[in-house]
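Encode chain A's predicted structure.
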Amino acid sequence: MTGVAAPPATPVANFLALGSSEILSRGIAFVATAILARRLGVEGLGLLSFAAAIAGYFGLALTTGFGEIGAREVARRPNEALKIAADGTFVRLLIAIFGGVAVALAATLLVSEPDARIVVLLSTLSLFSLAINTSWVYKGLERNRAVATGLFATQVIYLAGVLAFVRSPANVVRVPVIQFAGELVAALALLAFLFRGFQRPSVRGGLVLARQSGYITLSRVMRSLIVTFDVVLLGLLATRRDVGLYSAAYRVCYLMMAVAVATHVVYAPSISRATLAGSAAVRNVMEQSVALTATVMFPLVVGAAVLAPRLLSLLFGDQFGPGAPALQLLALSIALLALHGTTRSVFVAHHRTRLEAMIFAVAAALNIVLNFILIPRYGITGAAFATVAAEALIFAVCIVWLGRLGSPFPAIRLWRPVLGSLVMGAALLRFQGVAPLVLLIAAGAALYLVVMVASGGIRFGPAGAAVGES
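Encoded structure for chain A:
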């Protein structure tokens, strides 16, 4: 168990390691997506997104519960990290096999076009690279630099593969294989650094994790429905072009979503430990978590909403400009997701994952109903509105239950990021028609930083920057 007991870094230091890498890695993925958009066109990007949505719903959601429960157990029992990792990984592989079979059946039943069916089937490869990815162990040990390095390597390999092997729409079937190759290399590297020798897995131990993560897995299935059902329904009721436009807007949101998740993950171990000390300790960590999330996410959301048309044209080409209204609504959904995501670790730490699953199930049902009603009439804008409605419902219910768990949502910590983001957004609106986009982004970021420092939202001391301090 060499190296397992390394001293943990602070949450903000962990975010700077993981969050900055998320931004850099997703930036690389953005470059790859932009290249794919230009080489495959709107319809080609739509096909990839449709395949990923089906694979994500039937496969990836089956393994995600292990990540949070496993990380929680590793944080509580770091000396048993390798045993937990071996047990969890073995059962995750078994689940990935069943997930692959489910995706194959879905492709046979739902997809009639041969090229689309092949892309969907190849997308199942990612299930196996996900199954052996032990980043959840490193997160539990608060060793996020290793996770960041693995994520960075994945995206670099992916970008290199896209540049080398994707030249025209006919090469669309190569993309899932390239993605799998990058994920596999990073997953194997994390495995090699974690396990310095053979660790015999226990099916029983893995099944214990599976049972504990059951409601979280159900929550992720519901989450997958909220995020991907609109893409699947657009693919079935609309055209590949609609899916491509909507997916381009979502690619911008995925970057913001990844940053939001990084702000949540770094406080998860602290919240797990705080539950042992009482409600006051949990409230204190929650305040820090909400402050960090709001400070980082609000300017990204406002900037994406204001600059949506120019962002899509710059990143993917002018043919993707019509996706701007969807991006503006989806950006709002990311703000809501970022806020209610801060509550997730509280539900996990209090063993209230069943409650969380019920909340997500109700929101998913609302999302599905609204998608069936709105997509035929309003297309991608209707799909985006359905996502906003589902996220708003989750946020509202989570706030109510957070109070009942003795950890009321610290809304007071939001006013500084809201103020800074509104000032920045007003400036972007005023000058977006006359200034280059890159200059606008840089100036907007600088203005936000000035407002946050002036209001006390960001303070600089001898130890460096402290994000979201009161």
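The longest strand covers residues 458-461.
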